[in-house]
Amino acid sequence: xxxYRDMDIGTAKPPRELRELxxxxxxxxxxxxxxxxxxxxxxxxxxxxxxxxxRGREVLFVGGTPLYLKSLLRGLFDGPPADWKLxxxxxxxxxxxxxxxxYDRLVSIDPVAASAHSSPRYAPVDxxxxxxxAPQGSRLxxxxxxx
Length: 147
Hints:
Blueprint: H1 16-21, H2 38-54, H3 66-74, H4 84-97, H5 99-109, H6 111-114, H7 133-139
Helix pairs in contact: 2-3, 4-5
């Protein structure tokens, strides 16, 4: 959350006074309305690490989301990058046909992924809901990641 500008409350972002004394990186780099993936974080963090080491300094990671740090240190799974255009198309389709229709399609395409939702009642009705990427993956005709 520290990457987002103007989100100083509830993000455990170090106060500006401390950031002026001790260099901090990857703070306030994007607007809250901007999309930002783990892959983009890895690219940004890798560039900063390179710059810091080029100055003969060591890098210390503090705070943040474990997913991001683990991904930086261990790498991401081998899969397709986020397709923001496709996500927007699915969001529009969700508004038109509703979560139940998308869930029903997921059941027909990938029952294993659909089983992560114990019933249609838990079908993703919000594009930001966990599991929303399953219909996206199905639309891309990617081999099932859940197998």
